[in-house]
Design brief:
Elements (H helix, E strand, L loop, with lengths): L10 E3 L8 E3 L4 E3 L3 H8 L20 E10 L2 H4 L6 E3 L8 H10 L11 E4 L18 E10 L27 H21 L7 E7 L1 H7 L23 H6 L9 E3 L9 H48 L1
Parallel strand pairs: 3-9
Antiparallel strand pairs: 1-2, 4-7, 4-8, 5-6, 6-7
């Protein structure tokens, strides 16, 4: 929502299917839905001074195929480590670059062990988690992540208005061919996993595959990208091209509208969260930022003091 007289962002309006509710801001509006989505949602107002989407030459990043896997057994029993396993297609007479090119040309044609992928066990990373119950009830989670292009799975249509065609709580319509492709990916990734971790044979209780179209359903950008704007080098690089850096500034040209998230800083969950922190500090200004830093230091010192006191009390007793 943009005020017609001042051109200032004053709030957001939900889709009609979501109730058409208008939410007005008290101070400002912060958008975390991506640069292109934010620009697209502002384009309908002639008062908006947000740059046109076509002025940005930087493409969206690619998406991923992700296998979400449930495993029967514990990490200790199955000898699963908390480190990530990175698989790169390389070997005798095959360079890393040629291996990745072969994969991108024919992702379902290369050998499963020549798929560039990351295997991780999220539940094994939580070392503070104490599982109760009998050993046979132990469960672990696993994820396999592979770079993928949206066009491998179908065409993404850009909505005429807004950013979405189907609300997230509704299952999108998929073609029979899409289900077949997912099954082929599931079979190949299962073979890859059991080749690297043969001890998991017979322990896979759940094996679900998501695609760039799944990402598009929950994070719509008309691209299937999971990382927002691309982070490639060269002309238009978001980290070296000052024109692009200016366009991606957290303080947008629309008064009262701020940008945060991956597109404003860097990709990845921790840095996307960090972007929110940086945006909040910039909105607050230098005085508020200083107050926040002092309060954080005080809370840290207070926490360390409590730990030291508890340690002394334990030693005395």
């Amino acid at each position: 929502l943009i005020d017609e007289k001042s051109g200032r962002a004053t709030g957001v309006e939900m889709t009609q299917e979501a109730g058409g509710v208008k939410l007005y801001s008290r101070h400002c509006v912060v958008s975390a839905c991506g640069w292109r989505n934010t620009a697209r949602l502002c384009r309908g107002s002639p008062e908006s001074r947000f740059p046109q989407i076509d002025e940005m030459k930087l493409p969206q990043g690619d998406g991923f195929v992700m296998a979400n896997i449930g495993i029967q057994g514990s990490a200790t029993e199955l000898q699963l480590e908390c480190a990530n396993m990175e698989l790169v297609p390389a070997g005798k007479d095959l360079s890393v670059f040629d291996g990745i090119r072969n994969y991108l040309k024919d992702p379902l044609g290369v050998h499963p062990m020549e798929i560039p992928a990351m295997i991780t066990f999220p539940s094994a990373k939580d070392r503070g988690y104490k599982r109760g119950g009998p050993p046979e009830s132990a469960r672990e989670s696993c994820q396999i992540l592979c770079l993928a292009k949206a066009e491998w799975f179908g065409k993404i249509r850009e909505p005429k208005e807004g950013t979405i065609a189907t609300n997230a709580w509704r299952h999108p319509e998929r073609s029979p061919e899409y289900a077949v492709i997912k099954q082929r990916w599931a079979a190949r990734l299962r073979e890859l996993l059991l080749t690297v971790y043969p001890q998991l044979e017979g322990r896979l209780a759940l094996f679900d595959v998501s695609t760039p179209l799944s990402i598009e359903h929950y994070l719509p950008t008309s691209s299937g990208s999971a990382i927002g704007l691309d982070t490639c080098a060269g002309l238009g690089c978001r980290f070296t091209d000052f024109r692009v850096m200016k366009l991606l500034d957290m303080k947008t040209p629309v008064p009262g509208l701020w940008l945060t998230g991956q597109d404003s800083l860097m990709i990845g969950v921790p840095l996307a969260q960090g972007a929110g922190l940086v945006t909040a500090v910039r909105i607050g200004g230098p005085v508020r930022a200083l107050q926040w830093c002092l309060k954080s230091v005080w809370l840290l010192a207070w926490s360390l003091g409590l730990k030291a006191r508890d340690a002394r009390a334990g030693t005395t007793s």
